[in-house]
Amino acid sequence: MKNIIEYVWLVPLFPLVGFLLNGLLRNSLSKSLTGIIGSGSILASFIVSVLIFLDVKAGIDGPVIVTLFDFISFEDVSIPFAFQVDQLSSLFLLIITGIGFLIHVYSVAYMHEENSSHFARYFAYLNLFVFSMLLLVLGSNYVIMFIGWEGVGLCSYLLIGYWFKNIEYSNAARKAFVMNRIGDLGFLLAVFWLIGRIGTVNFGEVFSKVDSLSSLDLTAITMLLFIGATGKSAQIPLYTWLPDAMAGPTPVSALIHAATMVTAGIYMIARSNILYTMAPTTQTVVMVVGLATALLAATIALKQNDIKKVLAYSTVSQLGYMFIALGVGAYTGAVFHVMTHAFFKALLFLGAGSVIHAMHHEQDIRNMGGLSKKLKTTHLTFLVGCLAIAGIIPFSGFFSKDEILAAAFMKNPIVWALAAIGALMTAFYMFRLYAMTFLGKFRGTSEQEHHLHESPPAMTIPLVILAVLSFAGGLVGIPEVLMHDSHSLAKFLEPVFAESNRISVPHHPDHTTELLLMFGLMAVIAVVIFWAIGKYKKYEKTPEENTGFARILENKWYVDEIYEALIIRPVNAFGKMLGKFDNFGIDWVVNGVGRSVQYASRQIRLLQSGQVGSYVLLMVIGMIVLFALQVFLKK
Amino acid sequence: MNAIILSAILGVILMFSGIFLTSKTAIRNIATAGMALLLLANIAEQGGFLLFDVNTHNMLVFSKFGLLFNSIAFSATLLFFLVSAKDITNVGINAAEYFALIFFISCGIAIVSSFNSLLLLFLGIEIISIPLYILTGSDKRNLKSNEASLKYFLMGSFSTGIMLLGIALVYGAKASFSMEQMHSSINAGRNAWFYSGLLLVLISMLFKVSAAPFHFWTPDVYDGAPTVFTSFMATIVKAGVFIALVRLFDMSFVGSGYDWQLIIAIVTAATLFIGNITAIFQQSVKRMLAYSSIAQAGFMLFGVFSQNDFSREGIILYTLGYSLATIGIFAVLIKMKDYTFEGFNGLARTEPVLAATTTIFLLSLAGIPLTIGFFAKYFMLASAVKSGSHLWLVIFAILCAAISVYYYFRVIQSMYFKTGQAETEPVTPVFRWLLAGMAAAVIILGIFPNLVLQYLYF
Amino acid sequence: MVPVLLILIPLITGAALFAVKQEATAKSIALLATLLSLALMLAGMSGYIDAAQMTFNQPWLGGINSRFHFALDGMSQLLCLLTTLSFPIIIYSTWNNQYDDSNRFYGLVLLSQAGLLGVFMALDALLFYFFWELALIPLYFLCSRWGGERRIQVTIKFFIYTFIGSLFMLIGLIMLYFKAGGSFAWSDFLNLKMTSGQELGIFLMLAIAFAIKMPLFPFHTWQPDTYEQSPTAVTMILSAIMAKMGVFGLLRWLAPIVPSATFLWGDNFATLAVIGMLYASFIAMRQDDLKRLVAYSSIAHIGLMILAIFAPSYSGIQGAMIQMFNHGINILGMWIVVNVIEQKFGTRKISELGGLAQKAPVLTILLVIVALANIAMPLTNAFIGEFMMFNGVLGSTATKFGLAYTIAALITIILSAVYTLRMIQRVFYGETNELTSKATDISFNVKLSLAIIVVGIILIGVFPKPLLSLTSEVSADILGRMNLK
Amino acid sequence: MPINLYIFVALALFCIGVIGVLTRRNAIIIFMCIELMLNAVNLLLVAFSKMHLAEMGNAAPALANNGTDAQLFVFFIMVVAAAEVTVGLAIIVMMYRNTHSVDVNFLNRLKN
Amino acid sequence: MNITQILFWFLTVLAIGSSLMVITSRNPVYSVLSLIVTFFALSGHYILLNAQFLAIVNLIVYAGAIMVLFLFVIMLMNLNAETEPQKNKWLRFAGIIAGGCFLLVMVAALRDADSRAATAMTTYGETGLIQHLGKVLFNEYVVPFEISSVLFLSAMVGAVVLGKKE
Fold first, then answer.
1. What is the ipTM of this complex?
2. Chain B residues close to C152, C-beta within 8 Å
3. Given CB atoms, is B224 within the 8 Å cutoff of chain D?
4. All partners of chain B with 3 or more CB pairs under 8 angstroms
5. For residue D15, which of E102, A187, A598, C328 has the smallest C-alpha distance?
6. Each residue of E60-110: pLDDT tens digit?
7. Which domains are present in chain D?
8. Does A591 contact C282 at a Cβ distance shorter than 8 Å?
9. Which residues are bridge partners to A79 per DSSP?
């Protein structure tokens, strides 16, 4: 029997089959069958992924390339449709299929109100998304990665606009797609640049030829790739689509806009780590952008009242942390945070989904409160998620965030300080959210209160599993300072980042400093948490509005408005103007030629006066002219 | 020579037939048969069979080219008789005389297609012109016809005066009227007389082919003349004069060291411009066709302009294509009760065959491929490109050709795309078949122009 | 023999249809004829027919040395396949449209097919010109006779505009004819020794014809009007196939024949193409009429092909070839949808529509896929073409501005997403209104037509290899002639 | 006499004819002016005939270029002129019958 | 100045003067008469050039037949003096200018250095005699001569067609 890795194409195949079945037969399948196909296909992928992961863990000799067929080839450029299995991709396979499966299961219950045709459509989209995401991480070259890259963007578009009757939702979907597209073009340009310079896009060949690229090329390529990443991973300046993307069903937010798709940018940079290591300018840019995003999103999250919006901005903020990690060269840390973030953010979103489900699609936390009594499982798991994201030891978020902060500290203490402030804000807004939702007393309508109920097991079981993972997931990366040689993730990923690490050897702060920073920060976080809980436990609805800085934060720094005024409106006006110009400018000229011919016709016609005398006169004048010409021309 | 003598004899025969025959049909049949005979005689001469042995003292030279043209002109006339003979007899009571005059004109055409002396050119042109003055005025009760006739006559005589002055000057320089002496070195110094004389002759010929700025008579005369004669004038006669012009050029201007190309280029451009531009605004199809004939003359002038093998082939083809199409259109026009564009509205519904054939003729005039008109224009443009100078003229010509599409297609638009009840005179099935045959010829020759051109290669 | 049959089948059938009086029969005969030519084309391409039968070379005009010379190389095969594939789809998808005098309608449609096929196969310049016009005339009649309210003015403008271009081309071809020592053969046009002035003159003459036909900014203004006013079946022919005549002309009759002028003037035309792409995309964003929107988007897409040809490289040229096919079937899909909407609701105004997704889910799904292809989503056919073209433009050694062109052109990709999604949103999403609330889903013929297109889109998008190998040889050839290889 | 004098006289007469055509409205007068133009040409031809005779001398009377053909040409011009007058006056009379005028300015039904 | 020159100038002045009368006199009858005078002057020129045949034919055909025909027509139509309305002043002016320009241009075009010395043989030369002309006419010029009969035929037919009352 061949190695299971050779069958890696099965992993994306199952979701694809699921997509086709659900999509084509959506009118004839029953809901339960749809659910089984949808979830089952992901489960099958998960099982294969686990087998592959085990195989990889058991040790492979460098990345394994599985070529399916020749995709595009011209001249001497050949782009195969091939998959690459190595430590990084196998890890992502697990995250995607694992969390994906849980969310599929969760969705079966969450979406049960939809009629069967739309229900099938939902699962078809979801399966298609998983398929695209798998392509993204499995692709053995930038083009296949780009296919997945755009594919996930498409699925995100489809799922955000899932309730297409609502024009607001479809606006959000369009916004997401277009902003992603802007980033994608950067990616695409980088691909063209690579082809132009070294004639290949296959990861292995690109990385081995990295020395032949000039530093300008490297900077350009990495910057362009990073532009792609800002779009997909919602960084400044292209982050505004992600909060709006919460228009989609909550499980979608959990899967796509928290756990998987938005981390594609991190995956891509981690995959191309060697390029970035060779381009320090870009690295700095990545770090600065990541830091700025982390802080900006965190400030906005402080004042949001929509349960999903808070989580969305928190996602943006956490993604910022991952980019800080990438920017300072802590690739392992970034991947680690991707993993833990996937656990706890999926958990938080699913928890929020459970709350929303219970509240009959109420999302405003000012109308919640005291839900801990009715939604026990949800409450507990949500709390785990909050603790994890806040970075309380030994929850998973602690380890990954600590690794990033430690690396940032080594780069520059100011970066650490700013990131730490961000972490404090994270703790604050998460527990503000927690307190307003679950503590205090219920502030919604009595009808809502009457219907409050815990979600069905299909929803709670995934919550529990994710809670466990959020709690324990960090244990694969215990820092050296706490336990010697137990960072098994770093060891596992070592081959992927070996070259980068060789070029710029990662420094670790000495143990005392690290411990001091670690626990000093945690102490402050703890204080912040208690402050937040205390402050918002007794929250009462007040009619008065926020003023001053709070208002700016509530309105998200007015970034959407600025974009609207600076880009969207001028572009629309420009389009309108050009449209006018086309009709009254260019076409006027074209028609003007016709008109002037007609005008000339009207005028010249008058020469034909009907008078013999004038005819002869004109003839004589013509003769005179011809003779004059002849005399003039005579040599 | 066959054609010249026979056509004169036939003219006389028809003249007398008016006295002895009262039946218009009989006259018509005689005329048609006579024209067929004339055509046969000319074809016989092409094959080397001469009916008469006449010593012309080198005043007439019967070239292959001229004879082929004669055949084409006579076949066109035959076709014209076939589709329109009935309308000729309807113009007035003097049917036989009209046919006689047309035969005399044919005689004139045969003369100018083979003249070798300026005297014969002059006589030929006059033999063509004088009967035309009469035919133009043949609708005696119609003031428009009278007016057209008088205008044509006055201006035609004026141009005759110009031509004579030119011939006199040429004679002064070369001491001979013979075309062969045009390049003789006798009195080579008197080029100023020679060139001025040639220019004057050229101007009067340009007048006859209605080139701008000597075209002014054309719209009025074509418009005022009985439509059936307009058809004849605009096609066969004009082509005949063109052949004379080409011959004249061939034998005098070319190689004379005289830089005539610019003058011809200017005239050509002016003709194309005036013809096409003015045609746009016309409301009457007949008058539009008059202007279009000016525009077509502009294209034919390319044959004069470039003077190479392409232009000679082209002018033959152009003559054929233009005559076929124009005769066809006029044949339809005669049947229309209203000559304005509105009068054609909805013709496709009432008379689909007429509309379809007219469309094909118009496409041919516009020079659209798959019709003979395309090859006609193609050869003209190619000859100009080949001559290599004055490329701006070619560009100008194609812009004008594009303009011409506008007014030709106006007729098509009226017939097909506008609603209305176009009224026509009663149309016989034979007439329809004839038109269909002509349309088919336009297309077949448009795909295989070699059917005609091969006669020029042997 | 294959080329001759390909032309004769529609030609003869088309002419014969004028005599058929029953409308239903006429329609069926037309469909059968187009299917027959498709079958012949497929048989020819798949190798069932002897390769020698794929060319035809007989004397035509002895005196001027022009021949009936047709051949089917890779590019011709691709475009003929597009033509033969499109026509049955066009006829079948508009099966329920009612035309008066439908026998004439379908007759003219078939005649135009004959013309288009001839254009793509001719290897003799005069023959090429012949078919170039032959394709135009029936379309003029179709638009003028069965078009919208302003059809007469609009189509005469269209006709004269393109006719001017054609005549310029004719002059250019005649000049080449004399340069080639009196031959119209394409092969004789290659490797002519000309001064740069002559070459430039010929280049401009030919380029203007192609620029008007494609159309290239700023010669495009006939196009939105004509697309809008024509009956949709005709619009399909115009945009799916006839617009490709210009691009094909660039590749076959311009770039290899006057390479150094193409090289010298490449930047000018490439700049125009880029401006046109941006221009059309911006305008498309504000269009309310579906037909005009698709028309402007088509200008933008064609602009990219022009750019790829004037900033040439192997991948760009090959991409342009493939994209001709892809764009053809994609835009066909768009028009089918537009036709369905127009037939159903009697309006093409985006602002008057909405909520169709609830009433016509199948249509929506199929349209979305076509629209995704239109915005060059990966795994759709357009991605392959545009990927290669962008790559080619950036990597072109013929221009210094490859990067600027690429970036500017990439912006149109964003804009295309903006206007396409806006259209989908306004027409299909949201709540239904009075007009759309009674809508039903599409009939079987439309479903099948769109399904064929969608299958084609995805098949090529996933496995473009056949198209690539079909065009690789001819791309290399063209590039070699342009001295860029 | 110097040939230039003849040329000048002939041209003067010709141009007087032209001016007459341009300035008069009476169709008959216009026609007479055209006759005047023809006569100017006749004079020129005869003068040329004698010029060539003078240059060739009487030596070769049989040769065509001793001026004989020009005088014959004048003869033919007179023939044609006579024919033209016949037709022209017929047309004018016909016109007069219908309109009772020979004023060419009234001939403006056909224009544009 | 010998007698030939005197005669030449006399005839020239007469011809030009009377031809000017043709175009200026307001009475058509006077115009006809002036034209006849012009023709006489031209005949004088012909005689001076020893072209006796043409001189006689000119008198018989032109001054005799043709001009009498004109006179008949004018009298038939009863076109008295002052019946002809004057043309627009500007058009007349333009006509005169154009005619004058034409004369100027022609003279300019015909200036020919080589021909300054050339003269037309006056009073001598056999060519203009009827015997000589007749021989050539009926030998070499017989074809045009016959062809001109066609011209006459058509003119005759035309006159009949146009003149005949319907």
1. 0.91
2. 413, 417-418
3. yes
4. A, C, D, E
5. E102
6. 988 888 888 898 888 888 776 656 666 678 888 899 999 999 999 888 888
7. 3-111 (1.10.287.3510)
8. no
9. A72
